[in-house]
Amino acid sequence: MTKITDTMTEAELDARHADKMRKKKAARDKILATKTVEKGLVIVHTGKGKGKSTAAFGMVFRALGNGMKVGVVQFVKGKWLTGERKALEAFGDKVTLATMGEGFTWETQDRQRDIAAARAAWEAARAMIGDDVHDLVVCDELNIVLRYGYLPVAEVIDALRHKPAMKHVVITGRNASDELIEFADLVTDMTMVKHPFRAGVKAQLGIEF
Asked: What is the arithmetic mean of pLDDT over 24-35?
């Protein structure tokens, strides 16, 4: 391999780059040729960093752009009129949107009410996960109600295990259980490096909601 030096001409640098990219493409093509499985994925977005639900809704719009039918169940944020909810309403019957939450548990201050809301939201989500209508289902903030023990993790995993083969399910929220992480196909842990909230900045329209 030619070593880069200060005396190399632009033409030599271009030729070296082209050779490097050819080898990289050949290696990449060889790897891709071994990836032949098609399946519906169980995807988990967790961690303390911002972007878990945002990434999930990015997948929603990607799926809609590909003509897929999408279901969204919001386990916590149902009381909030969010930008994503207003945007999704424009897609009509291509999206089933169930805003079932009543806010965070420290706002309701009623454990039994929270459990009932979580159960109702899960029944809506489980129906979408098991049907032959939706291609992608987002269970937004499901990890939160699982963390509080409002729903059994085993029940959720059982529904995921028996979902249609090509259905994708995205689950968001902090503190995903070890069992769910182990079961999922794709897990992303959002790491918080810096957040304006810690500097006294309140939630901003179009960014947080």
From this structure: 90
The CA-to-CA distance between both ends of the chain, in Å, stands at: 51
Domain 42-199 has CATH 3.40.50.300: yes
Q: What local confidence, expressed as pLDDT, does residue 2 receive?
A: 53
Name the residue among 49, 16, 80 with its Cα closest to residue 192: 49
At 102 the pLDDT is 61
Query: Residues 98-128: pLDDT tens digits?
Result: 887 665 555 667 788 889 989 999 999 999 9
Task: Give DSSP secondary structure letters for 113-133.
Answer: HHHHHHHHHHHHHHHHHHSSS
What's the Cα-to-Cα distance from 8 to each of 13, 14, 15, 21, 179, rounded to whole Å? 7, 10, 11, 18, 55
Distance CA 51, CA 70 (A): 20
The angle formed by the CA atoms of residues 113, 118 and 122, to the nearest 5 degrees, is 150
Chain centre to alpha carbon of residue 86: 19
